[in-house]
From TrEMBL, chains A, B:
Family: Belongs to the aspartokinase family.
GO biological process, alphabetically ordered: diaminopimelate biosynthetic process; homoserine biosynthetic process; lysine biosynthetic process via diaminopimelate; threonine biosynthetic process
Enzyme class: transferase
Positions of substrate binding: T47, E74
Residues noted as binding ATP in the record, renumbered to the chain: K7, F8, G9, G10, T172, D173, Y178, R183
Organism of derivation: Oceanobacillus bengalensis
Protein name: Aspartokinase
Pathway named in the protein's UniProt entry: Amino-acid biosynthesis; L-threonine biosynthesis; L-threonine from L-aspartate: step 1/5; Amino-acid biosynthesis; L-methionine biosynthesis via de novo pathway; L-homoserine from L-aspartate: step 1/3; Amino-acid biosynthesis; L-lysine biosynthesis via DAP pathway; (S)-tetrahydrodipicolinate from L-aspartate: step 1/4
General function of this protein: Catalyzes the phosphorylation of the beta-carboxyl group of aspartic acid with ATP to yield 4-phospho-L-aspartate, which is involved in the branched biosynthetic pathway leading to the biosynthesis of amino acids threonine, isoleucine and methionine.
Matching SUPFAM superfamilies: ACT-like, Carbamate kinase-like
Annotated catalysed reactions: L-aspartate + ATP = 4-phospho-L-aspartate + ADP
Amino acid sequence: MKRTVLKFGGSSVASIDKIKDIANYLSRRVKDGEQLIVVVSAMGKTTDELLAHVHSITDSPNEQDLAMLLTTGEQQTISYLSISMNDRDIKAKPLTGFQAGIETVGHHLKSKISKVNTKLFDHLFLTYDIIIVAGFQGFNDENEITTLGRGGSDTTAVALAAALQCPCEIYTDVTGVYSIDPRIYPEAKRLKVVSYEEMMEMSALGAGVLTSRSIEIAKNYNIPIYLGKTLSQEKGTWIMPTIEMLEKKAVTGVAVDKDMIHITLNHPAYYPQLLDDIFINLEQEEINVDMISQIANNEGLQLSFTMKDTEEHQIQQIFKRLRQDYPELYFKIEDQFTKVSVIGSGMRDMTGVASKVFRTLIEANIPFYQVTTSEISISYVVDAKYGERAARLLCERFEL
Amino acid sequence: MKRTVLKFGGSSVASIDKIKDIANYLSRRVKDGEQLIVVVSAMGKTTDELLAHVHSITDSPNEQDLAMLLTTGEQQTISYLSISMNDRDIKAKPLTGFQAGIETVGHHLKSKISKVNTKLFDHLFLTYDIIIVAGFQGFNDENEITTLGRGGSDTTAVALAAALQCPCEIYTDVTGVYSIDPRIYPEAKRLKVVSYEEMMEMSALGAGVLTSRSIEIAKNYNIPIYLGKTLSQEKGTWIMPTIEMLEKKAVTGVAVDKDMIHITLNHPAYYPQLLDDIFINLEQEEINVDMISQIANNEGLQLSFTMKDTEEHQIQQIFKRLRQDYPELYFKIEDQFTKVSVIGSGMRDMTGVASKVFRTLIEANIPFYQVTTSEISISYVVDAKYGERAARLLCERFEL
């Protein structure tokens, strides 16, 4: 029997009426003979409402408590969806992350899935037609409830598909993947198919449709992912191995990542221990930095990197703490930057992409501050005010 | 170290501000050196809001799904309270019913506690100062989430106290137990102490401060229960074994149970199987009936009983179903009745209580339809319009 994991995000289940519409759609697919595992997020604004309550208590809530609170959001969605399915005479089984056997490791609020209990699903499908799993949540070896952090429900869905070796369909309120955000470049084309590698670059570089951790799982377990618009007839995008793609283009997409901050650190003497302390602290707080540049010589240490501004508060705290051990440490945090990236799996084979990009920005008088390259992408940090113009110019140059 | 279970009901935790007030109170007690286990209900109207959503989907939700949904209410309360405690530097550990090891049996929405994991608490108190448990919920042997039905959070608290052999304090928005509901008889006195037996009669007869199942657990494990008003200096009521009470009165209270319905069943022939079918059906739906009268002779079967009107819909369904097998079954459901009960553990030793009650009602021209007696109580069904007057007259007669 055909088995599929489907995931519906928060805006797709934002109201009881939307949940009923999804129940109708799922009923048809179950009646067509599919075994479905459905992963859902919290309804629309639920998480924001819970957080508003928390912030009326404290600005720094205990992480274990917060994970416990936030997971009630998805638990409510799975209950409503299961009630709707059972009401349509489809035998539905709702499962919290704990009940679904989603074991995690790491911080309570940024846990990573370590194991999924696949036997449970085989067993439940003997009795039930559809299994509805709370996304974004799991439990650790202390039996404590954890959450998976940003894009957590996608991760739940892809991890389940990987463990069960079946395809994964992810539904949101946009249709598939575009070569560039259509709000920036209205002529953007929707991609029918994209490789894991390209999609990972797009995600890591801020295209944001799916987090890179989800794509990485799909890639490692060779699970195709479909990205589509909830309850829409429009064709979405398949993410799959490169080898299955017929046609390669040098550049398939341009990603724009706004709200970046740029951090500069100086210390008059170069202590390897200092670098170590910095990165241990970043790792412990699970802060992602990218575009690291470092100069170390007799005149001391100079380090700069970029990151999302959402973690600005944490990074401030870290450096204030470090200054207690290194009183001469100087740091500066600047905001208002945008990262523009050009992505394409064909880039490995083709030359000239890099120089085309440089020329485009230079001709347009757009200054860029830091450049990093990967095997299939090139990224530039530019002033926020030039971000979208740079992206549009690059789309035109590469005929996206 | 002194260990106590405390329970705060839904109106006591109806807002974040109320939760913070309770956190302040609990902090003081923890700092005074107590080990506290706190059981909380869902915040104020949360359950009603969840049910409103459900009823926009269906009138007959799947019970497993509904239990899953409703338990999110207490899970949110324990999270907020734990965040508040941790914010006050009190090491708090929130536990869902599942995490607290509260095993249950029976219907998903009316489960009974079968086991509590006490070792867990001893273990957690090595690390934490206070353990916060979601009331009203548990899990069954299928690892499904269950709820404990009416008064469920009280049951959680008393069962934990019983398992841990420590006292239980139950806080609500009324102060302790009165000889009669002060809304009916303003001169009502608050009782300082009441026996398990008297309290069970009061509860079973509708006095409603605490369900009889909770008191039964306390009695079986010999756990004293304190009923008090949340964050109030006023002294409440202790419920404890009869033997510890210095003074006995023949009558300690009058209970008034409104919203009763009266069901009459007739069948032209007396089939023992029919009676069996009726009670099996009532048992399966876990419907509580009381005051059963039955006449069976050559002219057939006549059965009447009273029950709360909240289950009127279910009872209708049962009898409609039974009529498919017994087409000659006739049933009538009448509402607008009140049950008035006179309770007192001294009643065992003293005579004349029954005749005093009869005389009071007859003198006042209040007709009564059914009478039942237990070792320490006498109950009468009267027309709803006479209920409160009957209760007041009895209070005067017995000088309560």
